[in-house]
Amino acid sequence: MEFTLVNIFGEYTGIILAGLGAALAAFLSGYGSSQGVGIAGESAAALCKEKPELYGQALVLQLLPATQGLYGFVVAVMIVFFSSVDMSAGQGWYYLMAALPVAFGGLFSGPYQGRVSAAGMQIIAKRPENLSQAMTFPAMVETYAILGLVVSILMLVMKQF
């Protein structure tokens, strides 16, 4: 007997692969996001210890890396809604591949965005009026998470036509 996924999972191979894609989109982007939020949170806590009046500004910078996890969640939900139990293995592979841009985009950009947000805390520590400048730098890292989200969504939506 040949060892293939279709032989192991049978008629459910497609839905299992799609489910794996949804899980990877949510998990990997969420993991990257949680790392980024944690990194920025450490700096936010240190800043608030010295200057508690900057809590709101520090919170904004800490929340920026959280978006990657939301992007992965959106793609995971889309995959779940577009999937069906009777889908082919090829369709399942396609959904798994469509999940990868947002999954890896979030996994890698989240921690970097957290580091840049942490550096932004240094800006507002000295010049609280420069919050918009401090937010611009982490927003540049966000661009790559957004590109992963757009590619994943395009792949999922174009598959429907």
The radius of gyration over CA amounts to 19 Å
* Main sheet overview: none
Indicate the percent of residues in helices: over 70%
Uncertain runs are none
Structural class by sheet pairing and helices: mainly alpha
How would you state the average pLDDT, rounded? 93
Shape: elongated
Record field, number of beta strands: 0
Query: What count of helical segments does DSSP give?
Result: 6
N- to C-terminal distance: 37 Å
Strand content: under 5%
Could you spell the SSE succession in H and E letters? HHHHHH
Word description of this protein:
With 161 residues, this protein is mainly alpha-helical. It contains six helices and no strands. The longest helix is centred in the first third of the chain and has 38 residues, at 13-50. The protein starts with a helix and ends with a helix.
Note the main attributes of this structure.
161 residues; mainly alpha; 6 helices; 84% helix
Summarize the structure.
By secondary structure, the chain is mainly α.
Topology:
Blueprint (H helix, E strand, L loop, with lengths): L4 H5 L3 H38 L4 H9 L3 H16 L6 H38 L4 H29 L2
